[in-house]
Amino acid sequence: MPSALILIADGTEEMEFTITYDTLVRAGVSCTSAYIAPADDKGGLEIGNKTAPPFATGSRGINILPDRYFAPLELGPDKFDALVIPGGAKGAETISSNSPVQHLVREYFNKGKVVGMICAGSLAAKTSNLPKQALTSHPSVKTELEKDFDYSEEPVVVSKNLVTSRGPGTAFPFALTLVELLCGKDKREEVRGPMVFPSSTPW
Amino acid sequence: MPSALILIADGTEEMEFTITYDTLVRAGVSCTSAYIAPADDKGGLEIGNKTAPPFATGSRGINILPDRYFAPLELGPDKFDALVIPGGAKGAETISSNSPVQHLVREYFNKGKVVGMICAGSLAAKTSNLPKQALTSHPSVKTELEKDFDYSEEPVVVSKNLVTSRGPGTAFPFALTLVELLCGKDKREEVRGPMVFPSSTPW
User: Fold this and answer.
1) What was the pLDDT predicted at A40?
2) Does A173 touch chain B (CB under 8 A)?
3) Are the C-beta atoms of residues B174 and B165 closer than 8 Å to each other?
4) Which of chain A's residues have a Cβ under 8 Å away from the Cβ of B196?
5) pLDDT at B15
6) Which of A51, A75, B68, B72 could form a disulfide with B100 if both were Cys (CB 3.0 to 4.6 A apart)?
7) Using one digit for the tens of pLDDT, what is the confidence trace for A73-105?
8) What are the φ and ψ backbone dihedral angles of B182, each rounded to 5 degrees?
9) Are A182 and A82 in contact (CB under 8 A)?
10) Domain segments of chain B: what residues?
11) Which of A18, A58, A139 is closest, CB to CB, to B196?
């Protein structure tokens, strides 16, 4: 069973996070969300004798309980087939400026694992010093990326094992592209059907 | 500022919930999610000296912390401009079979407030005894609805103040339709732009 590690922080765009996680689960991908704490970590919740990561408050106020804390040594490319970074301005800032995350992004990319970034999450390609290649992002961070990458305005850009996309409106084709890369084209179609997209939807 | 009450339970489809809530917040709608406990209520989380509702485990395993417990006397049509019921087979079953919810649905509908139902959430139109009218749902529950309603296969069906839709793949046009009804056509366009849908997207 393929597996994916999906990062989340306060300010993560909750639609991009949820659409990616849920669509991958529908394809049989085992998903784990890991919480990247801000500099002023608010600490975990005590539940019985365990400490759960605190909930992440999304960019529009939905509180999501991540599956675990981020611990880079336990989350390397030997453990997961894909690493995904969602957008949301504040969440993407926290994630992309975290140096253990940057190291992990390079490891996943260099080992040929699927690396997905959407919206402002694409900033992590720059902060992680990934090689110049085709990439897209939310238009609001285009100017920060166009010098270091071959900037595209396609909804989803696949460059080797780096998959980038633009925003909530492209999150479904982004997630379905990850399904196709991890599970094949047939699985993409199998997952897409029951979601009931309108007939002229272009993905 | 318009306001919306969005119900959530264990087994709610987390994309449908999140896309609706997030899109409405982008339009300036004040959203409140209320947790419908299952028959075997697992109880609230003690945090300091307060009891928060337990997290709702979505249909694909994402844990969401609702804003509050469901308490029908505090959540009537005098308090909110819209009531929304997301899908997810198990979540929709819990919500639509809850008799205080059924009473609330009738109250919102009869007072002319916007009532939104998506996917299996449309079952609540039947369990609440709403009058026969145009409606859609996820194809998997069509047979349960087609005798009592004028069943449609359009992505989003607006019948008076009842708005119904089909699944995760129609959640964006469903949410944008709610924005249009609550905030007007200009706000719909204003919210839609920054989401960056691919150019030929049919909504």
Assistant:
1) 67
2) yes
3) yes
4) 138-139, 155, 166-170
5) 98
6) B72
7) 999 999 999 999 999 999 999 999 999 999 999
8) -90, -30
9) yes
10) 3-193
11) A139
- A202: nearest Cα among A170, A175, A179, A180: A170
Strands in B14-67 per DSSP E:
30-35, 45-47, 50-52, 56-57, 63-65
* CB contact (8 A) between residue B64 and residue A64: yes
Whole-prediction pTM value?
0.96
Q: Which two tokens stand for residue B192?
A: 């839609």
Q: Which of A202, A178, A180, A199 is nearest to A190 (CA)?
A: A180
Q: How far is B76 from chain A (nearest CA, A)?
A: 22
Integer angstrom CA distances of residue A188 from A78, A86, A173, B30, B166:
24, 20, 10, 36, 19
Kindly report the CATH number that applies to the domain delimited by A3-193.
3.40.50.880
H or E element, residue B177: helix B171-183
Could you tell me if B43 lies within 8 Å of chain A, comparing CB atoms?
A: no
Cβ contact B62–A22 (<8 Å): yes
Whether B27 has a pLDDT exceeding 70, the answer reads: yes
Q: Is 90 exceeded by the pLDDT of residue B144?
A: yes
Average pLDDT, stretch A1-13? 97
* Mean model confidence pLDDT for chain B: 95
Task: Please return the burial class of A11, using the count of CB atoms within 10 Å of its CB with bins 0-12, 13-18 and 19+.
Answer: buried
Of residues B72, B11, B4, B61, the one with CA closest to residue B38: B11
DSSP tag of B63: E
Nearest chain A residue to B60 by CA: give it.
A22
Residue B70 above 80 pLDDT? yes
Of chain A, the percentage scoring pLDDT greater than 70 comes to 93
Instruction: From chain A, pick out residues whose CB is under 8 angstroms from the CB of B47.
Output: 45
Q: How confident is the model over B187-199, as a mean pLDDT? A: 98
A201: alpha, beta or left, given left = phi > 0 and alpha = psi -120 to 50?
beta
What's the average model confidence in pLDDT over B95-104? 97
Does the pLDDT at position A42 exceed 80? no
Quick one: which H or E segment has residue A6?
Answer: strand A3-8
